[in-house]
Amino acid sequence: MDLPRGGLRKFTFLDRLNQKHQQTMKTNDMTPPADQSRQGSWKEPKTLMRLATPLRWSLPRILLVLGAVLCAGSTVAQSQTVWDPVDDVNVTDPSAIATGIAADSVGNLFVAGRINNALGTTDAVIRESSNQGVSWSWSASSTISGDVNSGARYERIVSKAGMTVVAGIKGRACLVRSRTEGVNEGKWGSDLMEGFIHPDPKYLLNTIWDVELDDVTKDIYVVTEYSEEVRSTDRRGNVTYSYVTRPFILRRVNGSWLEPVASTFLIKKVVTSGADIYCSGDRWRVRKSSDKCLTWSVIDAFIDPQFSAWDATDIAINGNGQLFVAGRVIKTEVTTVTVRGKKVSTVSTNYEYWMTRKGVAPTVNLPV
Fold first, then answer.
1. Is 309 helix (H, G, I), strand (E, B) or coil?
2. How far, in Å, are 61, 269, 335 from residue 356 at the CA level?
3. 230 close to 239: Cβ distance less than 8 angstroms
4. Alpha carbons 257 and 62: distance in angstroms, whole number
């Protein structure tokens, strides 16, 4: 009995597709070779390469292969790490914010931030976990209560070599507290700074950008931003006020707090490496100080004419002492709009790009 032509064509197609599938499963190995896995080089999937040439494929075959790819992607996604909330601070008022997280050398986790209080302001608080985030509790003696006039908040936290340091703000004052694992039952002490106010009353503390701890000397650097009150009087005697932001670095060196150091440029992040300190935040300029932040020299002044703006957001040093800076660059492209061959207007579009740069110190210092 002869089969209909359509049935014969359907059987032949599925048989050939199954054969192709078996060949693909043998040759399309997604695992990187042993010598390439260390270099981050991956073998390109042949299935995707074939999809890039659709003229050789019929529509049913494309749909079937796409379905197989989607199923495989679903399997991979299910095998990846699942992110779940492990600590959710329930309060009646939504103004509870976590602003920093750190893990110490023995596995304790600390999350710093602020939470509303009954006075209508905020308290600076820390949550901690000693079992990899399974359970959380309020960290002993960590809370700094706000009052009716001003709230308190923690903004940055860092942990190195068994010591954890947190920095925050209460009113006009800067708060810096620490704990050491195994000392005083791990309680947060007030031996560092609990209420530092800038000696010049015209400066008002706005933000703490960063806190850095030297894991060898235990020196502490707090990157802050103050508002300077500027008064001006016109010819009629009327006084007006304006505010200008001023960066300051608070330093605790050899166990003692030194005078704050004013900066003429924006600093958002500092890292230490031996006797040297590196900072970023002023566009893409990377600076180095060898005298505890008193003076700085520019070691990288990245400028590229194809980009219209730069913004380095973080800096890090690896175990080999190499510097890495990460942030964004913005490229502006201008498109000319024409009507019947005549220029009517132009349209500017900004495109943001992710960028990471590896730093190599030059033989001579660049201009500040």
1. strand
2. 41, 15, 28
3. no
4. 69
Q: Hey, which bits of 104-236 come out as E strands?
A: 109-116, 122-129, 137-138, 152-160, 163-170, 173-180, 189-196, 203-213, 220-233
Does the predicted TM-score (pTM) go above 0.85? Answer: no
Containing H/E element for 13?
helix 5-27
Phi and psi based region of residue 185 (left: phi greater than 0; alpha: psi -120 to 50; beta: remaining): left
Q: Which residues, 6+ apart, have CB-to-CB distance to 80 below 8 Å?
A: none
Strand, helix or coil at 112?
Answer: strand
Give me the mean pLDDT over the 48-72 stretch: 50
Q: What is the mean pLDDT of the chain?
A: 77
Question: Over the stretch 294-341, which tens digit does the pLDDT of each residue have?
Answer: 999 998 888 788 887 778 888 998 888 888 999 888 888 888 888 888
**Crossing angle, helix 5-27 and helix 59-79, to 10 degrees?**
40
Amino acid 19: pLDDT: 58
Torsion of CA 89, 91, 97, 102, to 10 degrees: -20
